[in-house]
Amino acid sequence: MSVTDEELAEQREAGNRLGAPSRLRVVAGRFFGSFQGRAGFALLALMFLLAFAGPFLGRWSYTDRDFTAFLAPPSADHWWGTLQTGADVYAVTLRGMRRSLVVGLLAAVVGTTLAAVVGAFAGYFAGWTDRALTWATDLLLVLPAFLILAVMSPLFASGQWPLFVLVLALFLWMVTSKIVRGVTISLREREFVHAARFMGVRPTTIIFRHILPNMSSLLVVDATLNVSAAILTETSLSYFGFGIQPPDVSLGSLIADGTRTALYAPWTFWFCAGLLVVTVLAVNMVGDSLRDAFDPASGRGRR
């Protein structure tokens, strides 16, 4: 019995649809098959649940003030104590952690996306495109990011934290873009890229449909690890007063305020500092486990 071209095409499409989830299941199996992956995922899920659902369990909002309890220790009324202003430590800490998580996630996604696009275009088109994008990348690598963010910090006030995310992401993508460029130079000589080019497929379509999907593991791992880098950067900037601006709060600004009272009121410092350590540790554990899941040889090499 003969098979028509339409039936062959349908079979290939069905195979492709079955192949993608199959690879996803393999990676997920490797990830959750390791203790580090399970522990990191559980910790990170707990941090997100605490940051986004935890405020609904408390009696106080992060804007509330209890003028009968200044620097009060943890109690039934204030589970994690209060600050010098009478603010509830539980409420403001979870608000700060939520802001730090959102900033870290968005900055990592924007930075990794920018790295993928710039690196792929530079590696595929070569010539003047490669030279111009490489020059821009090298320029951003030598610019003092901390100083630029500090100078621009007045622009981040009055709820302009999305601008802070964008500026922060602009200094997270350069090293990854160079890696993507090198991988793209190798991939553009592969048979499937030549076949697409000979069929008249547009270069941008080749980049987004054929080249970038073939480095998805690199981009996923990079985005995950960039989350912790963005959170630490935001925390450092906010600690010195250059990040998230009042009346909003972040873990960095809370840690900065808590250092003044940490010796005689440790609850003002250690709750936010501890959550920062656990969050960054969980993100790094997830990132390392994802890398081992996509490339099992890397995990064997470290052991």
TrEMBL record:
Single GO biological process annotation from the record: transmembrane transport
Transmembrane segments: 39-57, 101-127, 139-157, 163-180, 262-283
InterPro entries in the cross-refs: BP-dependent_transpt_permease, MetI-like, MetI-like_sf
Keywords of the record: Cell inner membrane, Cell membrane, Membrane, Transmembrane, Transmembrane helix, Transport
Principal cellular location given in the protein's record: membrane
A Gene Ontology cellular-component term: plasma membrane
Domain ABC transmembrane type-1, residue spans: 97-287
Xref: Pfam families: BPD_transp_1 (PF00528)
SUPFAM superfamilies: MetI-like
Highest taxon in the source lineage: Bacteria
Topological type in the membrane: Multi-pass membrane protein
Family: Belongs to the binding-protein-dependent transport system permease family.
Name of the protein this chain belongs to: Peptide/nickel transport system permease protein
Annotated source species: Streptosporangium sandarakinum
